[in-house]
Design a protein that fits this description.
The complex is a heterodimer of chains A (about 100) and B (about 325). Chain A has about 100 residues and is an alpha+beta fold. Chain A is built from 2 helices and 6 strands. Chain B has about 325 residues and is mostly helical. Chain B has one domain: Na+/H+ antiporter like fold. Chain B is built from 16 helices and no strands. Classes of the chains: A alpha+beta (about 100), B mainly alpha (about 325).
Chain lengths: ~100, ~325
């Protein structure tokens, strides 16, 4: 089976900023993404967990998108200002996809 | 006088809502695995907003609009806008905090805690003290001005660096104004006012009967969060910041008592206005500030409002505010 090289952009960001990050991705012509809730974790500010929280503050979400290399750079530029001062992690990794035209 | 305060305080400390809150704090400090699922906590918060808004609206429908309504709304907005200015100045003078952190904490203390308001209204009802139903609308009005003033303070102290400018001020203001809790609270208030006593009879089994039980469960969750917040965030708090969490509510309460007296509010209404001014937000404001002021450290302001001021208000503040209202009225 043929596979095709792509970039996987993964953004873990605070839940209150989610809509803004998604808007920035839309503006960068990113055609698709998936949002997942993060359940718990630990970082420089100590451990945290989602259970029991009422406010969006304190919750984290993960946004995953698979992109062409060129679009990955554009998407990263688009979200950079939003995520610079925020609690979160941004990673880009190399992946292989089966259906090239979907991405 | 001391006997009277002690009597109100004892009754308050032995109420199920305070005891459930204490249970939550104890469970979190003991590192118990007791948790309230996120969806259940969110649903209970929505229920409480709906119920308290609806009840306030029905009260207004029953007793009509008071001439003091406009004055109380304006007083609430004024308190919400000025308390952060005082809080910011005090924090900058006494605590070694950045402008971002000082502004963020000031916003929390200028805004209100609707759960503290609900707890105070329950204590008043238990004591048979009536209050003006429109205080719910005052609570909604007091949510936002503090956030705007805090953002202004932060942008003045560090011009050009806050996310409000990066992300567009209008977007942030719109998201703050249309915050889900405010929309539900105000919407339920108007629905209650429009449907009146007959509307209340129709939904009473849902809004009145389970209210106390849901509030106890919600306060158990708040206790768990407060305990967890204290465990994890205590290292972020210096003695000066901790002291602010204790004296700032008293300062705000004094200003509010003056306004309540000038407006001629009832004992119950005065107690609720004082409680609103003395409370610190931990639901709406943290989310708004993570959006608009991400440089501020959430461990500091969440621990302050949820781990320090909320328990103090719930256990000791509410009886004191009721007593102050009795003295002023």
């Amino acid at each position: 089976m043929d596979t095709y090289p792509k970039k996987r952009l993964e953004i873990i960001v605070e839940a209150p900023a989610l809509n803004r990050v998604l808007n920035a991705l839309d503006q960068a012509d990113v055609s698709g993404y998936t949002v997942l809730p993060a359940l718990a974790g630990k970082g420089s500010k100590g451990p945290w967990q989602r259970e029991g929280l009422v406010s969006a503050a304190g919750k984290m979400v993960m946004i995953v998108c698979i992109l062409d290399e060129e679009l990955a750079g554009k998407a990263l530029d688009s979200v950079f200002d939003l995520i610079t001062h925020r609690i979160g992690i941004v990673t880009i990794s190399n992946v292989e996809v089966v259906r090239d035209k979907r991405f | 006088m001391i006997d009277q305060i002690a009597q109100i305080a004892t009754a308050n400390l032995l109420s199920p809502m305070v005891l459930f809150f204490a249970l939550g704090v104890a469970a979190a400090l003991a590192k118990s695995d007791l948790v309230i699922p996120e969806a259940a906590a969110k649903a209970m918060a929505l229920y409480l907003m709906l119920a308290i808004g609806f009840k306030g609206g029905v009260e207004v429908a029953a007793h009509g609009l008071d001439a003091r309504l406009l004055g109380t709304l304006l007083a609430g907005a004024f308190l919400s806008a000025t308390v952060p200015l005082i809080g910011f100045a005090l924090l900058r003078l006494t605590a070694n905090l950045s402008a971002y952190d000082a502004a963020a904490i000031a916003a929390h203390y200028g805004s209100i805690s609707i759960v503290t308001f609900v707890a105070a209204s329950q204590t008043l009802e238990h004591m048979g003290i009536p209050y003006e139903g429109y205080l719910v609308a005052v609570a909604a009005v007091m949510e936002t001005p503090a956030i705007l003033v805090a953002l202004w303070l932060a942008s003045r102290a560090a011009p050009g660096q806050d996310d409000v400018q990066v992300q567009g001020k209008n977007g942030v203001l719109r998201e703050i104004a249309l915050n889900g809790s405010i929309v539900l609270l105000v919407g339920s208030f108007f629905i209650g006012a429009a449907s009146g006593k007959e509307g209340m009879e129709a939904v009473s089994p849902f809004i009145v009967d389970p209210f106390q039980g849901v509030l106890c469960l919600f306060l158990l969750d708040m206790g768990l969060l407060a305990g967890r917040s204290l465990t994890q965030g205590r290292r972020s708090l210096t003695p000066a910041v901790l002291a602010f969490g204790a004296y700032m509510p008293l300062l705000s309460a004094s200003f509010a008592a003056l306004f309540a007296w000038l407006l001629g509010l009832s004992v119950g209404g005065s107690a609720l206005l004082i409680t609103l001014a003395a409370s610190a937000s931990y639901i709406a404001v943290p989310a708004a500030l993570r959006l608009a002021l991400p440089q501020a450290n959430p461990a500091v302001y969440l621990t302050m409002s949820l781990g320090v001021t909320f328990p103090l208000n719930l256990a000791l503040g509410i009886p004191l505010y009721i007593f102050i209202a009795t003295m002023f009225s």
